[in-house]
TrEMBL record:
One of its GO terms (cellular component) is cytoplasm. InterPro entries: AAA_16 (IPR041664), P-loop_NTPase (IPR027417), Sig_transdc_resp-reg_C-effctor (IPR016032), TPR-like_helical_dom_sf (IPR011990), Tscrpt_reg_LuxR_C (IPR000792), WH-like_DNA-bd_sf (IPR036388). Keywords: ATP-binding, Nucleotide-binding. It comes from Saccharopolyspora karakumensis. This is LuxR family transcriptional regulator. SUPFAM superfamilies: C-terminal effector domain of the bipartite response regulators, P-loop containing nucleoside triphosphate hydrolases, TPR-like.
Length: 947
């Protein structure tokens, strides 16, 4: 085991080297000012101690002090402590300062300040001097002003001023001191990265490596070395670690995510520096989760807002809470969890129940009340009182739409408590099936709906359950059974008209999936006839959605778009229609883009993202993010695609198998284009697609990523084999035009012209149905490659340009450059190649550049360009999108407004802002704004034009 100080220095080699350099400079007579910034426990204080030890070793005079909350109340206290101004000093000058301070009747601060500055000058004349103050955010104003003046002395004296501070310190006078005219050295101490965290845990346990479960648990420490150390020690102390010389891992009993009791108590006990009222309020806040609103806190604490101000301000100043837009969040998740878990269990359950009732009576969203009600149920004794059961009867359907996980858990606990004669039982059973439908669990929905239908006596519940059963059977591919359920339901008397309309609509879906277009049309007409007089927006929207899908299958895309518009209007803003509305919008977006209407498609995507972020379930939100990433990839906004993929990855556990393959495939493909081989291999391995991705659903991007890997490994025949196997699957892949040009190119390169011919014919067949611009472009691309025809390739290039597809546009230019070079038309080949290179460089498509260079080199065509070294930090490291967002931040726009301005999602903007903060070493949006303003507005205008 290691000491706490040593633990906090793990992973700090670069910072330690920088500090040693500053100590050496002051010894050489060069002064400096250092701001050492980091959250508590992140290693800031340990680094400060290391610097002081190094300075003493080099022979410097070292003076240091630590400020605390009391320091703000006493003028010059911090500097007096730092310079050891006290009555027991052996220095006559220091004794004189203390005596004058003691005897002064008027305001002594100005005079004493001058004497302290003179004292520092005298000390510097005798030796190199280091003055250090820890936790300077607590310093009084007069000390800070003197510190500011001392920073001027450091310009020409052997004086090193070191201020250690928390980034959360927000006092205006701190900002003024930080912004002094001379340049100061700022070292921001970041959290430990994954490697350093694993190394520290291995060192603490004496093991060679750390197991994945332990590493995942340590992730809750958010890279804080103090918490990593305390978590490991607590786990070991309570026998939750299996550690030998080779590996340290959690024991099987540590799977519920709870903190070791001793750790939770230690963290909670360390919060004694704030008042008991504040601790009490934080315990209430911990009930609400990591992030909460002041309104919710007021409601559950039953205190007026004015009574919360002091406690909230104290928690913010102490860095326990931070602002997150209009909400508050715990600065560290472990603190929230410790406060929550150290509240006695009986009291905690009662507080959650009280919070549920308070939120319900205040009109809070049902999911907030549901979360609290669920948290009030004991694991050992799942009791829900009458109030809770009655609340569920009135709100379980909406809860199933807004928070299906919570609804399913609550209903699973509530239903067994009710007798078969309780009138609340049947509506709750029906709502539980709805939750399963919303969660995308057709097997469980089928089982529950069949069981409930067997003994229900309520015609309304029977109609709804029949609808859910038909949906689940159709989702499982059991079309015959789904049709039988619908037909039986339609013969059953007493069903309300809306449910009859929905039954006809789902029958239309089943008929369409089986390719029975006439039967599907007939079912849709009957659904519309029932839905319109019933004014059932969902049934009407579903029927129009099925009609639109049928038109799209017949390649009548323009009419299909109109149908989807009508479906969206019918569905409206009703929360229970959110999922279907997102599906309709997604289909409409794809059709608009396929028709070459890129701006309209972008508008539909923006509407999808806004709805999903506001009210979709996590599973649906993840699917929408994948759609957004797909679109951004296609139109060449790869940074935005990556941001959406990062956000979708956070919800990967909510995706079905097809969604996960889509996620891994697109992630791998982007990595391949960027020549990021490790990420490409990880994505392919995660998708388990090595053998034959062509036989898997949702595998187009996996297919391309696998082929790209084979080509990069100088095995083009394997790439041809992968793509050709997909071609033999017929039209299974509805978007095969995405990869058919690649198959033609690769097959020609390997001499397999028969495969190239089949691929070209297949693309021509697809293009002949409906004349969709994207497919027509791909067909021209294939034909131009097969026949070595520049005219066909020019036609493809023009279509790719008109439909806003820079990656495919560049690929067609590259192919045309090769064909022209083969024909001896070097000047035109060089021009086409140069245009392709410009697009590839803008995209960051490093692999495509390498491939294009290799193809053109035998023809003696080269594109002269210098080797580009991108900065890794500072303004120059920002991408064009990040710079544009930085300027919008400087204009004062919040993230939602930036998202609207850029036709992006809030989450994408959040990811970009976090990247900007990291690259600039900034702590806040204010500092981003300062840096953006310093670089002027012309750059943003240039980026906007180029975009």
């Amino acid at each position: 085991m290691t000491s706490g100080g040593a633990a906090e220095l793990f992973g700090r080699d670069s910072e330690l080297a920088q500090l040693r350099g500053l100590a050496g400079e002051v010894v050489a007579g060069r002064g400096n000012v250092l701001w050492l910034e980091g959250e508590p426990g992140i290693g800031k204080t340990a680094l400060l101690r290391a610097l002081l030890a190094e300075a003493e070793r080099l022979g410097c005079a070292v003076h240091h002090a630590a400020a605390d909350q009391l320091s703000q109340r006493f003028p010059l206290r911090v500097l007096l402590d730092c310079l050891a101004v006290h009555p027991k000093s052996d220095d006559p000058e220091i004794l004189g300062i203390h005596e004058r301070l003691r005897l002064a009747s008027d305001d002594p601060v100005p005079a004493i300040a001058e004497q302290l500055i003179s004292l520092v000058e005298k000390l510097c004349a005798a030796d190199s001097l280091v003055l250090a103050v820890d936790d300077v955010q607590w310093a009084d104003e007069s000390s800070l002003l003197v510190w500011h003046r001392l920073s001027r002395l450091a310009e020409h004296l052997p004086l090193l001023l070191v201020a250690a501070i928390r980034p959360s310190g927000s006092r205006t006078e701190l900002g003024a001191v930080r912004g002094e005219g001379r340049a100061a050295v700022r070292i921001s101490v970041p959290p430990l990265d994954e490697a350093a965290k694993a190394d520290l845990a291995a060192h603490l346990t004496g093991a060679a490596e750390v197991g994945p479960a332990l590493l995942e648990t340590l992730g809750r420490a958010a890279g804080n070395p103090r918490y990593v150390r305390e978590m490991v020690l607590a786990l070991a102390r309570e026998n939750h670690l299996d550690a030998d010389g080779a590996r340290a891992e959690l024991t099987p009993d540590m799977t519920d995510g709870a903190l070791p009791r001793s750790l939770a108590e230690a963290i909670a006990a360390r919060l004694g520096f704030v008042g008991s009222d504040t601790i009490g309020l934080l315990r209430m806040a911990a009930l609400l989760g990591p992030t909460f609103s002041v309104t919710d806190l007021r409601t559950v604490s039953e205190r007026p807002v004015v009574a919360l101000v002091g406690c909230v301000e104290e928690a913010l100043t102490a860095g326990l809470l931070v602002e997150s837009g209009s909400r508050l969040t715990f600065q560290h998740g472990l603190i929230r969890q410790a406060l929550h878990e150290t509240t006695p269990t009986a009291l905690r359950l009662a507080l959650h129940h009280q919070a549920a009732r308070a939120l319900a009576s205040s009109g809070a969203p049902v999911e907030r009340t549901g979360e609290q009600l669920l948290a009030s149920i004991s694991v050992d004794d799942a009791e829900i009182d009458d109030w809770g059961l009655d609340w569920l009867v009135g709100n379980s359907r909406m809860l199933a739409h807004r928070a299906p996980d919570c609804a399913e858990a609550l209903l699973g606990s509530a239903i067994p408590l009710l007798s078969t004669h309780d009138p609340r039982r049947e509506p709750l059973r029906t709502a539980r099936v709805l939750a399963m439908v919303q969660l995308g669990r057709p097997e469980q929905a089928r089982e529950l709906s069949e069981r409930a239908l067997a003994d229900t006596h309520d015609p309304s519940c029977a109609a709804e359950l029949s609808w859910y059963l038909a949906w689940s059977l159709a989702a499982l591919g059991l079309d015959d059974l789904a049709t039988e359920v619908v037909e039986t339901a339609l013969r059953t008397p007493g069903f309300d008209r809306p449910w009859v309309a929905r039954m006809h609509a789902v029958l239309g879906q089943v008929m369409l999936s089986r390719g029975h277009f006439e039967a599907a049309d007939a079912a849709v007409e009957r659904a519309l006839a029932e839905a319109r007089p019933a004014r059932d927006g969902f049934a009407l929207g579903l029927a129009l959605h099925v009609r639109g899908a049928a038109l799209a299958r017949r390649c009548d895309l323009a009419e299909a778009v109109i149908c989807y518009e009508q479906a969206g209007a019918a569905l409206g803003d009703a929360p229970e229609n959110t999922d279907l509305r997102l599906t309709v919008l997604g289909n409409r977006m794809m059709l608009l883009f396929g028709l070459g209407q890129a701006a309209e498609a972008e508008g539909a995507l923006h509407e999808m993202l806004a709805i999903a972020e506001r009210s979709a379930t996590p599973a649906r939100l993840a699917a929408v993010r994948l759609s957004a990433a797909n679109h951004y990839y296609t139109i060449g906004r790869w940074e935005d695609a990556t941001a959406e993929l990062d956000a979708a990855t956070e919800l990967a556990d909510r995706l079905d198998e097809a969604g996960r393959r889509w996620l891994h495939g697109l992630s791998g493909l982007l990595a391949g284009h960027r020549d990021d081989r490790p990420t490409l291999l990880r994505s392919l391995q995660a998708a388990d697609c090595e053998e034959n991705p062509a036989t898997r659903s949702a595998a187009e991007f996996l297919l391309l990523a696998g082929a790209m890997r084979a080509e990069a490994e100088s095995d083009p025949r394997r790439a041809v084999r992968l793509l050709a196997e997909a071609l033999t699957e017929g039209k299974r892949f509805g978007t095969r035009y995405l990869w058919l040009p690649d198959l033609v190119r690769l097959a020609i390169g390997t001499g397999e012209t028969e495969i190239a011919g089949r691929a070209t014919d297949a693309c021509a067949e697809d293009a002949a149905v409906g004349a969709v611009p994207n497919i027509v472009a791909a067909s021209q691309h294939c034909r131009g490659l097969l026949e070595r025809d520049p005219t066909a390739l020019r036609a493809a290039i023009e279509l790719y340009s008109k439909t806003s597809q820079p990656p495919r546009y560049a690929r067609a230019l590259e192919d045309m450059a090769v064909v022209l070079a083969e024909r001896g038309e070097s000047a035109q080949a060089r021009t086409a190649y140069g245009r392709a290179v410009q697009v590839y460089q803008k995209l960051g498509a490093t692999w495509d550049l390498r491939r294009a260079d290799a193809r053109m080199r035998p023809h003696g065509v080269r594109h002269a360009r210098g080797r580009r070294h991108r900065a890794t930090n500072g303004w120059e490291s920002l991408t064009p999108t990040e710079r544009q967002i930085a300027h919008l931040v400087a204009d004062g726009l919040p993230n939602p407004d930036i998202a609207a301005a850029l036709f992006s999602s809030r989450r994408t903007v959040e990811v970009h802002v976090s990247h900007i903060l990291a690259k600039l070493g900034a702590r806040s949006r204010v500092e981003i704004a300062v840096e953006a303003t310093r670089h002027g507005g012309e750059e943003m205008r240039s980026d906007s034009r180029s975009a």
